[in-house]
Amino acid sequence: VAAQISLEVSGSGTVKPTETLEKTCKVSGASLTDSTNMLGVSWVRQSDGKGLEWLGLIYYNADTYYAQFLQGRITITRDTNKGEVYVKLTGAKPEESGTYYCARHTQCNRWTEDMYRN
């Protein structure tokens, strides 16, 4: 039987100008260092009136990749003991509130079909 893996996003909702936006993705059912089930975790957002935007990714080995348009403002980190992945966005704008998702990448298909919202 395959492991039941779930992801849940928490963190502040609305953003005030120049504020730092922080979100947490809690992963249950797999280790963040498991390269098969948790090749990486991406952050994606949907702001009001916009489509989905990919923000960045942290791999099982802690390598990070960020969207070009957020370079210098975004940091993705993790705590493997807690099974949590964090995104921090400095100088956030109110229009960047929106809905933030985390999604896991797997070894067999870089994107899983499951995305989790907050």
TrEMBL record:
Residues 3-102 form the Ig-like domain. InterPro entries: Ig-like_dom, Ig-like_dom_sf, Ig-like_fold, Ig_V-set, IgHV. Keywords: Adaptive immunity, Immunity, Immunoglobulin. SUPFAM superfamilies: Immunoglobulin. It comes from the Eukaryota. One of its GO terms (biological process) is adaptive immune response. One of its GO terms (cellular component) is extracellular region. SMART domains: IGv. Signal peptide: none annotated. It holds the Pfam family V-set. The keyword Transcription does not apply. This is Ig-like domain-containing protein. It comes from Eleutherodactylus coqui. The lineage of its organism: Eukaryota, Metazoa, Chordata, Craniata, Vertebrata.
